[in-house]
Design a protein that fits this description.
Oligomer: single chain
Mean pLDDT: 85
Order of helices and strands: HHHHHHH
Number of domains: 1
Radius of gyration: 23 Å
Strand content: under 5%
Length: about 210
């Protein structure tokens, strides 16, 4: 009687590719934000009083920036959700739970900054049929100057949470997020780093798609 022998052949583990959707969302967010900045440009164009600001806003193209900044917000939130899901696999960390809240608040405040003059144009032309009034222009400027620094501060908190969540997962993500967070907290360059956050979302989307 011959006993059958069984030989276990080691198999090579397959490498699972990440989904391309985060990369597409990140690159789409970058493209949408770039378009919004082009149309937003300088809505005041050197105006020094409410009447001049109203005339400058009404003659600009801020209304064209509104749908683009809305698309940026949606795509950036998609990247934030994918990032929170990826970092959450390493363990239950409190910082991971803050990512959707702080990231969404940052994107929302930045959206308000660009939508404020567009809202003044929409109300003056589509709702009241009076054009942009000096009061509407002044209100839009108040909202812009309130939302812009808040977007930077909340964005810094979001990036700090990312850095804390990514420890032991990606040193590059920790370092870049920390540098961006410090930049957002520095008043002289905070506004510029806020605009560069679109590149951060694009880079993180690509990183997520390349990760296993």
């Amino acid at each position: 009687m011959t006993a059958a022998t069984r030989t276990d052949v080691p198999t090579t583990p397959t490498r699972r590719r990440g989904s391309p959707l985060p990369a597409l969302a990140g690159l789409g967010a970058l493209a949408a934000f770039a378009g919004a900045v082009v149309f937003f440009n300088d809505p005041l164009r050197g105006a020094g009083d409410p009447a001049g600001a109203a005339e400058a806003i009404s003659g600009g193209s801020t209304d064209l920036a509104a749908p683009l900044i809305g698309a940026y917000a949606l795509l950036a939130v998609a990247v934030i959700g994918a990032l929170a899901s990826r970092l959450g696999r390493a363990g239950d960390r409190g910082a991971v739970r803050l990512l959707p809240l702080l990231g969404g608040a940052h994107v929302l405040l930045l959206t308000v900054t660009i939508l404020a003059p567009a809202a003044a144009v929409a109300v003056g032309t589509l709702v009241l049929d009076t054009g942009v009034t000096p009061t509407a222009a002044e209100t839009a400027l108040v909202l812009m100057n309130l939302a812009a620094p808040l977007a930077a501060w909340v964005g810094a908190g979001f990036l700090i949470a990312v850095a804390l969540s990514a420890r032991g997962i990606s040193r590059t993500l920790v370092v870049i997020s920390s540098v961006f967070a410090v930049g957002l907290l520095l008043p002289p360059v905070g506004w510029a780093v806020t605009y560069l956050m679109a590149f951060w979302f694009a880079g993180v989307g690509i990183w997520l798609s390349l990760r296993d």
